[in-house]
Design goal:
With 762 residues, the protein is α+β, with helices and mostly antiparallel strands. It has 26 helices and 25 strands. Strands 11, 12, 13, 14, 15, 16, 17 and 25 form an 8-stranded mixed β-sheet that branches. The protein has a 7-stranded mixed β-sheet with strand order 1-7-6-5-4-2-3, sandwiched between helices. A 4-stranded antiparallel β-sheet has the order 19-20-21-22. α11 packs parallel to α13. The protein is elongated and about 90 Å long.
Length: 762
C-alpha cells in the first residue's frame, strides 16, 4: 500500500486526463520544439485561460516550481530588497532565494511560524531596505502544518513595505474554491502577495502556477524571465491533461473530491488519537507525521512498516532536527478507510517495538516535540522502559568534588585536563562580563552493578560560534558581520571537554559487554541536561576516526559526523643534534629546514618563562593577533586572565622568541611566543602568538623548532602540536592523526542560518 503519494485528489489516474493526453500526442506529437519567447503550443492558450478563471487573477505558468522560483524572483525582487525566509520553507524556495544575494538582495531567516520573531525582523529591516519579502509555505511538507496566513496578511496591511511570497504546492486542489489551495481557502488573494503553487501534486499533472495580482507585473514576469521564456515547453500530453484537470477543478466535482479527502483525513486523525500515537500534523492537511525522536527509531520503524507492506517516508535530518525524526505518510482519494485502519494497526503494533529495540521511551518524543503546536504533550502513551536501571550515574558540576586519583587515572593523562588543570579552568571561566567566558562544567561517571566505572567524561556549557566547524571561507564571511554584531550566529552548546582542550575526553571501558547501553545512558543524561538549560546542540569531540563501533553507534543514534582538523604529534626525539634530525627527512624537507629554520636560528634569542611574569600583556597581544586571524577552528578569543592564570601555574611555561635586530639598534623585538603545557611525559604547545610585521623572517617555523628543542631539553615526548597549521607542522616530521566529532542539532535554526551562505562560499 502506497502512503507516499502527493496526488491527494487522485486525478493522476483519471481516465479523462489520460484520454486527453493520448489525443494530444496523436494531434500534436510528443512536444512542441520551440522556446515560448517565439511561439507557444496552441494548448497553452486554453490552459492559461482556465487557470485564470480558477484563480480569478493574472497567472504565469512554469514547467516546475523549482524552475519557476528561479525565474520569478529575479524579476519581482530588486537590489535593495530583503528576503525573510521561514526556517522550514521548501528547499526550492531557499535555493532560489540564496542566489538573489548575488543580485544585492539581503537574506535572513526566522524560526518556523514564529510571528513575534518575524515582526521584530520586519521592524529591524524596515528602515534599511526598500521592500521586505516573507517567504513561506502554505502547507509545510514535513509536519503537514500550515502558515498562519491571516496573521501574515495583517502584517502586510500594517507594514507598508512588507510583502508575501507563498508556496502552496501541498495545498493545491485539496482546499479552496476551484481547488485553488489552502491559502485561498482561508483568505483572499492579497495585492501584496505572490502565490505560487504546483500542478505535480493534487492537480494530477506537472507544472507550476504563479498567481500575481498586479497584471503589469505578471506580464513583466512572463516576458522578462529567462528560465520561463527560454526553457523547453511542457509536453503536449501534459498540457492537455492539465486542461482536463482544470475543467474538473472548475466544476462542482472538485468539492466532492475535497469532501471525500477531508473525511479520510479526519478518520485517520481519530484513529491515531484513539491508539495514542504521537500525531504531530495539522488536523486539516493530508500530510501525517508520527513523531519518533531519535533517527535510529525512525529507520527501525520504517523498515518494519515496509516489511508489513506499507510504503511510508522517513522524515530526518536535515529536513528536521536529528532528534525530531518521524514517520511521514499521506492520505489520498485512492486510500480507503480499510487501508487507513490497516496502516494504523501496523503502527500500533510496531511503534512500541521500535522504541524498545532502540532503547528509547516516549519521554524522548515528548522532549523533542514539546514546542510543536500540533503535538499533544499531555496525551497518555505507555512508556517503553529501557533496561539501564542497573547502571549508576554520578554527576557533579565541580572537579573539586571528584577524586583526584580516580580522575587522573581514567582521564587526566589523556590531554590537557588533569584534575589540577580543570581547577584552573573552573577558576578562570566564571563571573566574567563576557558571555563567551562563562562556562558551566559537568562531570559524569557511569558505574556498573559492581561499582566499576564504565564511563568517565566531562562537558561544558559554553557559548560557541555556530560556524566553529565550518570551512574557513564561510567563517571569514561571517566574521565580517561580527565586526558589527559580535554575537551574530552564536548559540549555547554542550561540548565534550572544552573548546580549548585537546585529547581523548571519553573514558569508555569497551571490555564491558554493556558499554553501548552505558553510552546510551550518558547521551540520555546529557540530552536531559540540554533540554533543561535550553541548549540547541551537543558536540562529541576528538574521537578516533578509525573506530567503526563508536562511529556506527553515534550515527545510529542521530548524530552527524564531522571531520576535525588533523592533530599533530612528534613521538620520536631520539636524535642528538641538528644533523641527525635532518637525516630523518628527504632532500626537499632538508632544504626547507636548512633555509627557513636553521639558517636564521642565530638571529633570535630564546627565553623560557615560568611563574608570575610582568610580560603577560605583551604576550597576550601577540596571542590576540594570531587568534583573530585563525578561523580554521573558529572560536572566541580567550580572555587575558586565562593566560595570567596559566603563567602562574608551574605546569605551564612560555617560550619567547625575540629578533635581535640589525646593526643600527641594540633593541630586541619580541616576535613570537608559545604557551606550553607539561603533563606527565608529554609536552603540549597549545597557543601561539605572532608579530605579523615579522612573518617574512619565518618566525612561526622558528617557533616550532624552538618548541621541539625545549621538549628535547626536558626529555619529554611525545610533543602534541595540536590542530591547524598543518602545512608548517608537517615540515618537522609530525605524525598526523585524523579525529572526528559527532554533532546533534536539537534545533536546525542555526544550521539553516549558515546555509544562507551563497553556494560558492558554502
Amino acid at each position: 500500500m502506497n502512503f507516499g503519494s502527493y496526488s491527494y485528489i487522485g486525478l493522476e489516474t483519471d481516465e479523462r486526463l489520460k484520454e486527453a493526453a493520448i489525443e494530444a500526442i496523436r494531434k500534436y506529437g510528443i512536444q512542441y520544439p520551440s522556446s515560448r519567447a517565439y511561439v507557444s503550443s496552441t494548448l497553452y492558450v486554453e490552459l492559461e485561460d482556465l487557470i485564470r478563471r480558477m484563480f480569478d487573477a493574472p497567472i504565469v505558468l512554469a514547467s516546475s516550481l523549482s524552475i519557476g522560483h528561479h525565474g520569478v524572483m529575479p524579476v519581482i525582487l530588486e537590489e535593495g530588497d530583503a528576503i525573510i525566509m521561514d526556517q522550514q520553507v521548501h528547499s526550492s524556495v531557499q535555493d532560489a532565494a540564496r542566489k538573489m544575494q548575488l543580485n544585492g538582495v539581503h537574506l535572513t531567516i526566522v524560526r518556523h511560524n514564529q510571528l513575534s520573531e518575524l515582526k521584530k525582523k520586519i521592524e529591524e529591516l524596515g528602515a534599511k531596505y526598500n521592500r521586505i519579502w516573507y517567504m513561506c509555505d502554505g502547507v509545510y511538507s514535513m509536519y503537514g502544518d500550515v502558515a498562519p496566513i491571516n496573521e501574515l496578511i495583517s502584517l502586510a496591511d500594517h507594514y507598508k513595505n512588507f510583502y508575501l511570497y507563498v508556496d502552496d504546492a501541498h495545498g493545491m486542489s485539496s482546499f479552496g474554491k476551484n481547488g485553488t489551495g489552502y491559502i485561498l481557502s482561508k483568505a483572499s488573494l492579497h495585492p501584496k502577495m505572490i502565490l505560487c503553487t504546483g500542478m505535480a501534486k493534487g492537480f494530477g499533472t506537472i507544472g507550476a502556477i504563479f498567481v500575481i495580482p498586479d497584471q503589469e507585473l505578471a506580464l513583466k514576469v512572463r516576458n522578462c524571465s529567462g528560465p520561463l521564456i527560454f526553457s523547453g515547453q511542457q509536453a503536449t500530453s501534459i498540457l492537455a491533461a492539465s486542461i482536463a484537470s482544470a475543467k474538473i477543478h472548475l466544476s462542482g466535482e472538485i468539492e466532492v473530491r475535497q469532501k471525500f479527502l477531508a473525511e479520510k483525513i479526519s478518520y485517520c486523525h481519530r484513529l491515531l488519537k484513539k491508539y495514542e500515537l504521537p500525531d504531530i500534523s495539522d488536523p486539516e492537511t493530508p500530510i501525517f507525521f508520527i513523531g519518533l525522536g531519535m533517527m535510529s527509531v525512525g529507520f527501525n520503524l520504517v523498515e518494519r512498516m515496509i516489511k508489513e507492506g506499507f510504503y511510508v517516508n522517513i522524515a530526518a535530518f536535515p529536513a528536521v532536527p536529528e532528534i525530531c525524526t518521524g514517520i511521514r505518510f499521506t492520505v489520498t482519494i485512492h486510500t480507503t478507510l480499510e487501508d487507513i485502519e490497516k496502516l494504523v494497526e501496523a503502527l500500533v503494533k510496531h511503534f512500541p517495538l521500535a522504541l524498545k529495540e532502540e532503547g528509547r521511551t516516549f519521554k524522548d518524543i515528548q522532549r523533542a516535540f514539546r514546542k510543536v503546536s500540533n503535538f499533544d504533550n499531555n496525551q497518555f502513551i505507555p512508556v517503553v522502559k529501557n533496561e539501564q536501571n542497573y547502571f549508576r550515574v554520578s554527576h557533579t558540576d565541580s572537579i573539586n568534588e571528584v577524586s583526584e586519583s580516580l580522575w587522573n587515572k581514567l582521564l587526566g593523562h589523556r590531554g590537557i585536563f588533569t584534575h589540577k588543570a580543570l581547577q584552573l579552568m573552573e577558576r578562570t571561566f566564571q563571573l566574567s562580563d563576557k558571555p563567551e567566558d562563562n562556562w558551566k562544567f559537568h562531570y559524569y561517571f557511569i558505574y556498573d552493578s559492581n561499582n566499576k566505572p564504565i564511563i568517565a567524561t566531562f562537558f561544558t556549557e559554553a557559548l560557541v560560534k555556530s560556524d566553529m566547524l565550518s570551512p574557513a571561507s564561510v567563517s571569514e564571511q561571517i566574521e565580517e558581520k561580527r565586526k558589527h554584531d559580535p554575537y551574530y550566529l552564536t548559540s549555547k552548546a554542550l561540548v565534550m571537554g572544552t573548546v580549548i582542550s585537546e585529547g581523548d575526553h571519553l573514558y569508555l571501558d569497551k571490555s564491558n559487554n554493556d558499554w553501548r547501553n552505558a553510552l546510551m545512558l550518558l547521551l540520555d543524561t546529557v540530552s536531559e541536561l540540554s533540554e533543561k538549560v535550553n541548549i540547541g546542540q551537543v558536540l562529541i569531540r576528538d574521537m578516533n576516526a578509525n573506530d567503526t563501533e563508536i562511529n556506527d553507534f553515534f550515527i545510529h543514534h542521530g548524530f552527524v559526523r564531522y571531520q576535525l582538523p588533523e592533530t599533530h604529534v612528534i613521538e620520536d626525539l631520539k636524535w642528538n643534534n641538528k644533523q641527525e634530525f635532518l637525516n630523518r627527512f628527504h632532500k626537499h624537507r632538508k632544504q626547507y629546514l636548512k633555509q627557513r629554520v636553521f639558517k636564521s636560528e642565530d638571529d633570535f634569542n630564546v627565553k623560557v618563562y615560568s611563574g608570575n611574569n610582568d610580560r603577560i600583556a605583551l604576550w597576550y597581544q601577540l596571542y590576540r593577533n594570531t587568534a583573530q586571524k585563525s578561523v580554521q577552528l573558529n572560536t572566541f578569543v580567550l580572555p587575558e586572565n586565562f593566560f595570567q592564570n596559566i603563567i602562574e601555574d608551574t605546569d605551564w611555561e612560555v617560550i619567547e622568541l625575540s629578533y635581535k635586530g640589525d646593526n643600527t639598534t641594540d633593541r630586541e623585538i619580541v616576535v613570537a611566543v608559545m604557551f606550553c603545557y607539561k603533563t606527565g611525559n608529554s609536552y603540549c604547545p597549545l597557543y601561539a602568538g605572532l608579530n605579523y610585521d615579522y612573518l617574512d623572517y619565518d618566525i612561526y617555523p622558528q617557533l616550532l623548532w624552538q618548541t621541539i628543542l625545549r621538549a628535547k631539553e626536558l626529555a619529554v615526548s611525545p610533543i602534541n602540536l595540536g590542530f591547524t597549521a598543518s602545512q608548517n607542522k608537517k615540515k618537522f616530521g609530525v605524525i598526523s592523526y585524523s579525529n572526528v566529532g559527532y554533532l546533534q542539532m536539537k534545533d536546525s535554526y542555526q544550521m539553516a542560518l549558515i546555509n544562507l551562505m551563497p553556494n560558492e562560499v558554502r
